[in-house]
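All the exercises in this workshop are built on plain-text protein records. A record pairs a protein's sequence with a compact description of its fold. The structure tokens are whole numbers drawn from a learned vocabulary of backbone shapes. Once this layout is familiar, the rest of the handout is easier to follow. An example says more than a description, so a record of this kind follows.
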Amino acid sequence: MRAYKVDILEFAYEDMRLGKYFYNEQDENLGRYFVNSVLTDIESLSFYGGIHVKYFGFHRMLAKRFPYAIYYDVEDNLVIVYAVLDLRENPLKSYEKLLNRM
């Protein structure tokens, strides 16, 4: 099994910060749980990077516990996470965000 290095771009960290803020508004500890869950999903890309279907030019992995998608690309031995986007948003808005990150 191939192991990839995983790099998370600042855009994706900002997406997670926004998600954390949203979930903290729901419950004080839910934001931290959100970030930890998404980071665990992202860590799994070190082994499963590249197996997910492409949407908008990026591989898309669905988060396990929250309605979010992790958009990434694979270059040589590196998985680059470009975005962590809320699936409840309009898909055109997600598409525009991803275009701006290319």
